[in-house]
Design a protein that fits this description.
35% helix
Length: 162
Amino acid sequence: MLDDFIQLAQIPDPAPIAALYRRTWGTEPPDFEFHAVASHRRPDASLQPISYLHLWLREDTCLLGGACTDGAAIAAMPADQRERLRAAGGAMLQVTRFAIDLYGDRCEGFFGHCGDNRSWAVLARAGFEPTAFPNRIAHWHRPLPEARKRELVQRVLGFGTF
């Protein structure tokens, strides 16, 4: 367990992660739907965001995107905490699993676009799998017939880039 120094939460406003998002993506974070964040609880009890994920519920799907992690903030953590976080799969894995647990009852599948090998390694550990379409990934958190999975993937492709 990491809850003695990591807080996982949904935040109503992306302002606490805006600087991290801008550094990672070069733009402002989305200002709609849901924001999941992993924060380091520092010795003074203040919270430092270390990983972020945007979630967008569309019909019976949930689109994930905008993932970013603050390597400098993680490097500034005490060594024992860094090692525990690393051994648990890292901040992005923690925030992704949190989001799946939080929104799993509101959708039939989670979908993302992933072209980065490092991100893919984390998302595969969270249970994502490739689809038949380049860089499009899916997480099936409940049993679904293959025909339904194909239908959902096609619908998500129709949403365009997210």
